[in-house]
Amino acid sequence: MEQIRITIKKIFKKNTANRRCFFITNTLLNIFNYCIIIENNYVFKAGVFNIKKKLGIITFLILLVITACQNREPVIEKVDAIPEKPNSEPELVEQVKEEEVEEFIEFYLDDEQITINLQAVPILKEYLHTTKDRRKATEQMRFERIYNKEQSVYLLEFSCSNDKCSYLAFNQTKDNQAHLIADLAKSVDAVISPEATKILFIFERSNKSLPQPLTNIVVIDIDNWDIVPLVNETTNRDILNFNWPLATVEWKDDDSISVTKPALLEPDDEPHYEWQEDGELPMSTITLRAASN
């Protein structure tokens, strides 16, 4: 029990920034200590008072409160009033907080400064820790605002090689995690749905064996900040995930998307190469529905 108490105290020390959590956790910890004193000085019969069971419940409550109330910093922070002469390139910044070094990346847009908290984006933090030149890798990142009405949505391009990059989507008004929405691909477009509840990202990936790049579509629900599964309502074939080149992609309504693809059995059929020469190839239209989570 003493070892459990020491472990909880260490966790507790790191998560007391929130005053209400401080009070609740401190109270539970005091009860925990009191129960240990009782356990060490008295003997209880199992049928009267099971002290170990009580200690287990209190331990669970302490960990539950710490998990629920710990001071979670936002994934990104926005500053509308930027310096007169901000850096044109992203900047990697280190700050010391409570004897720990925390890392941030600052991006400068035309009318705002955005700071990404690397502690809240593990995949981005890990990428920078494994790259040889962290400063150069940071400066090569591209950060753009995709949507800026009631909620600000941003797209980060990073880890580029041979014109293929990784992409993270951020929502400034949400505390949820950033979404990794593409890897080894190139961003083509981002389109808001008719009622502005979803955003559609289009990515391409080049393939040396095909005359046209392969395509993938990712849809995010802006309000819930969830990736929305897409269901093919026309055929049972998987035309996404870079399996097919898509000629057009557009919203039909707020829950469905219309796409066109070459009317072939397989993307590497011979007529596909003839299309590259004469520009004519029959197309098939497919409807994708945004499924409810």
Characterise this structure:
The chain has 6 helices and 15 strands. It has 293 residues and is an alpha+beta fold. Among the domains are: 2-69, no CATH class; 73-139, no CATH class. It has a 7-stranded antiparallel sheet with strand order 5-6-7-8-9-10-11. Helix 2 (19-41) runs antiparallel to helix 3 (51-69). It is globular and about 70 Å long. Residues 11-20, 43-49 and 66-71 have low confidence and may be disordered.
The unreliable regions are 11-20, 43-49, 66-71
Evaluate the radius of gyration. Answer: 26 Å
* Strand segment count: 15
Q: Can you write the helix and strand succession as a string?
A: HHHEEEEHHEEEEEEEEEEHE
Mean pLDDT: 79
Helical fraction? 25-40%
Shape: globular
CA-CA gap between termini: 43 Å
Query: Class by helix and strand content?
Result: alpha+beta
Query: What fraction of the residues are assigned to beta strands by DSSP?
Result: 35-45%
Largest sheet: 7 strands, antiparallel
Widest β-sheet, arrangement of strands: 5-6-7-8-9-10-11
* Number of separate helices: 6
Quick structural summary:
The chain has 293 residues and is α+β, with helices and mostly antiparallel strands. The chain contains six helices and 15 strands.
